[in-house]
Design a protein that fits this description.
By secondary structure, this protein is α+β, with helices and mostly antiparallel strands. The chain is 44% helix and 20% strand.
Length: 349
């Protein structure tokens, strides 16, 4: 980072007779977390440390205290600054590792994030729920990996949409989220590439993590997740399990149309007549409505109104919920909000 940086005030985390702990936003999607300091001349300064979004997520989750966070400054970058009336243009000056300000004002050990206001910018990242899937029967490693992979894929789709429509998400972040939806499909792309990009994009922001597991039958898999996207995932599985036939029919219609038009591997930039665009959009809307829990307009907007990308996302979501439903139908996975409706899950002839 340069020796002089322009930052903007993101949030006052702690106020006590004046601001004591601040969070600033700096270029390249990074942040500076800062504490009040007064130099020997009596100047009211702040000592700041450069941090990444992932570091903030870990700090918010109380994986370490503020002292640890600031001592592990990203790129070993520490700054001093004064507050100005212009919250959009705070001038930071980089200081050396051995500066007196660092030695004198790094917080004492034991000051965790619970001591101040929650960090709004990572409110979409901190897991807010612990959920459990009960498992039974015989499993091999590949099957378990497949089950968890489908859960992860669908969860991250919902989480990305949720992040995009959250009021705390900046315009720059919204554009990056849209780009994550579009980039993997360029040049034909692949579904694995798409979900790999979505998972990578969410890894630093909104992690889904296994927090407990017991393989013995009966056993369980416990995950830590954000509540809303996980609820959306469960609602999708529950609706499909209850009545999968409409979604299966809508999937076949959309897939067949795109296969005959040789569009399944087409690039997002491919030229489509208005008739083709309208037909694909209509069929994708049918699939969206049959799946439920997935807002067509949200996915379409994430894809910047690109009808091919929108259709491919819905095709991929159907395949994943179909595979997840298979584990529930076999009796090998249970969740208290998903009924094991054997009649409904029978494959139609």
């Amino acid at each position: 980072m340069a020796t002089r940086v322009i930052a903007s005030l993101e949030q006052v985390l702690l106020w006590y007779d004046g601001p004591q702990i601040l969070l600033l936003r700096v270029p390249n999607t990074l942040f500076v977390i800062a504490v009040a300091a007064t130099d020997k001349l009596g100047n009211d300064l702040f000592l700041g440390a450069l941090v990444t979004p992932r570091q903030l997520v870990q700090y918010q989750a109380e994986n370490f205290d503020l002292r640890f966070l600031m001592l592990r400054a990203h790129r070993s970058a520490w700054y001093q600054f004064e507050l100005s009336d212009d919250e959009e243009e705070i001038k930071l000056t980089r200081i050396k590792r051995d500066a007196e300000l660092i030695r004198d004002f790094i917080p004492e050990a034991g000051l965790f994030s619970r001591a101040h206001e929650p960090i709004k910018t990572v409110s979409l990242a901190a897991p807010s729920a612990v959920e459990k899937f009960d498992i039974d029967g015989s499993w091999n490693l590949g099957e378990f990996s497949s089950f968890y992979g489908q859960v992860e894929d669908v969860y991250y789709i919902f989480n990305t949409v949720d992040r995009y429509y959250n009021n705390n998400t900046s315009i720059d972040e919204k554009l990056k989220l849209q780009e994550a939806f579009l980039r993997p499909w360029r040049g034909g792309g692949s579904y694995l590439g798409f979900y790999g990009q979505i998972a990578n994009d969410n890894d630093q922001e909104s992690q889904l993590r296994v927090s407990g597991i017991q393989y013995h039958s009966p056993g369980y898999v416990e995950v830590r997740a954000r509540q809303k996207p996980f609820d959306d995932l469960i609602n999708l599985i529950a609706r499909f399990s209850n009545d999968p036939m409409p979604a299966r029919k809508a999937y076949r219609n959309l897939y067949s149309f795109m296969a005959k038009a040789k569009l399944l591997k087409a690039s997002p930039d491919s030229f489509l007549s208005q008739d083709y665009q309208d037909a694909i959009r209509s069929l994708a809307e049918d699939l969206s409505g049959s799946l439920g829990a997935v807002d067509f307009i949200h996915i379409e907007h994430m894809a910047r109104e690109n009808v091919l990308v929108t259709a491919k996302v819905f095709l991929s979501l159907h395949r994943r919920v179909e595979r997840l439903n298979g584990f529930f139908a076999q009796g090998r996975v249970k969740h208290d909000r998903v009924e094991n409706n054997v009649q409904a899950t029978m494959i139609d002839g």
